[in-house]
Amino acid sequence: MTVRSIAMAATLLVPSAGVANAGETHEFWPELQFHKWFNDRQSRAILMMSHSRDRDSMRERIQVQRDITIGNYLFTPYASAEVYFDTQYKQMSRYRLILGVTLPVYEHFSVEPYLARQVDNAGSFTITNAIGLTVIASF
């Protein structure tokens, strides 16, 4: 991922003053995940639990990530984009952009802080800026 790509994604995630009165909200999205590895850590099953508004809808997501090692510490920054199709309005009703990083904390535990910007344009136009934190337990 180039510096230009990261800068463009960050611009979309940072709240802008021009749309503040268009129904913009700020939220915190906590989440807990349990990862179970199989086949010598080649496959895994993931159980996700979250307490956040509208995160359980049907969606299409693409995610780009890359492992980075500094010294002996390996972490994984990522960017993802999701789109939602609303059959009631017969249109793409929402998109969500996320920038985050997976940080190993201890042998089987990681934390994943992220920034999200969600734009809903079906019905009423709203923008949600969120800070998320996922706690991951891997076994």
Describe this structure in words.
- There is one protein chain.
- By secondary structure, the protein is mainly β.
- The chain has one domain.
- The chain is 8% helix and 63% strand.
- The protein has one helix and eight strands.
- It has one helix spanning 3-13, and strands spanning 24-38, 43-50, 60-65, 68-70, 73-86, 91-106, 109-120, 126-138.
- Strands 1, 2, 3, 4, 5, 6, 7 and 8 form an eight-stranded mixed beta sheet that branches.
- It is elongated, with a radius of gyration of 17 Å.
- Mean pLDDT is 79; it is low at 1-20.
Helix count, per DSSP? 1
How big is the Rg?
A: 17 Å
Number of strands: 8
Low-confidence segments, given as residue ranges, are: 1-20
Distance between the termini: 30 Å
Helix-and-strand structural type: mainly beta
Shape, per Cα inertia axes: elongated
Q: How many independent structural domains? A: 1
SSE order: HEEEEEEEE
Describe the main β-sheet briefly.
8 strands, mixed
Overall helicity: under 10%
Strand content: over 45%
Q: What is the mean predicted local confidence, pLDDT?
A: 79
Brief overview:
By secondary structure, the chain is mainly β.
Which properties best describe this structure?
139 residues, mainly beta, 8-stranded mixed beta sheet, 1 helix, 63% strand, disordered N terminus
Task: Give a topology summary.
Layout: H1 3-13, E1 24-38, E2 43-50, E3 60-65, E4 68-70, E5 73-86, E6 91-106, E7 109-120, E8 126-138
Parallel strand pairs: 1-8
Antiparallel strand pairs: 1-2, 3-5, 4-5, 5-6, 6-7, 7-8
